[in-house]
Amino acid sequence: MGGPLAGVFFHWLGGLSSASFYVPYRRIQGWSWEIFWIVGGIFSWAIAPWLIAAVQTRDLWSVLSGTPASTLVWCWIWGAGWGFGGLTFGLTLRYLGLSLGMALALGLTTVIGTLGPPVFDGTIVQLVQLISGQLTLVGIVLALAGIALVARAGALKEHAGKPQGAPAIAEFNLRKGVLIAIFSGVMSSCFAFGLAAGGPIRQLTLEAGTEPLWQGLPVLCVVLAGGLTTNVIWCGILIWRNRSIMQLTGKTGAALIPRAQLLRNYGLAALGGTLWYFQFFFYTMGESQMGAYGFSSWTIHMASIILFSTLWGFALREWRGYGRKVTTLVWLGIGTLILSTVVIGWGNYLSGAG
Predict the structure, then answer these.
(1) What is the pLDDT of residue 165?
(2) pTM of the model
(3) Do 130 and 291 form a contact (C-beta atoms < 8 A)?
């Protein structure tokens, strides 16, 4: 199996992994957010990427040691920038609410992360002159529309349970929220730039004899190292501020976490962290199949995350009882997101067919 259609399928698997990684975290008990986030993150950004890249690619250390230092530095910098975007996404929702916050942050991330690389390398002009490129752009617009529909449904769901006359968002602050949303959206898109900057690493990986399907795995090692740096610093600050370091040994204030639960916490964090990594494991596989329009992978990735996150919400009964209007908007958004990935895959297929 190969080509853009296979690429779309791999991106769907990546979206499913991303949408599922937090499910194990929900069952962790006795740990603060910063503790389970960094424990899971060690698997996400350090253990899983290096272990899988070492197994699936050839001469990993030789490839990375032979990579120009400027490439490694830029991949790391883009990864660190992406880490800031993820950490500020929650503040966006806090000040703007689910609907406006998601629309701004995810919309910016999708547009900048998708169109940024071809704008900077000058291929955007050629893109808009071809039918295949125009189809890909239509797919990007459809993805943004799908995100907006799901965000709108989420806002209606969020407001449904509030008392009449109560403010929809307790800490609503348009100016602050928009500024944070722009920052979060721009910085979150840095991951796509980091992957694009890793072109020389992919080339050296292929020259070392690695199959094309796995060429992006060494790039992930470097980009995720940047994300690890950002998250370690922030979680370290929270751990120091909240004095939560002893939770790693099972102590939560005067109480003790039962040994079985403590071991379960580590296992759940490892599972969640590894699932998180697999979103980009499948992402690199999908990107390798997208041909000349590999940049469109970012749109499919974001659309797939929203798609499967919403479906998880149905599975966990989070949408039950909110009325036909909300349900209709959700399913319309899901259908639009699915259509967007098909259209983008079609555009990529036509580019490969000439």
Answers:
(1) 44
(2) 0.80
(3) no
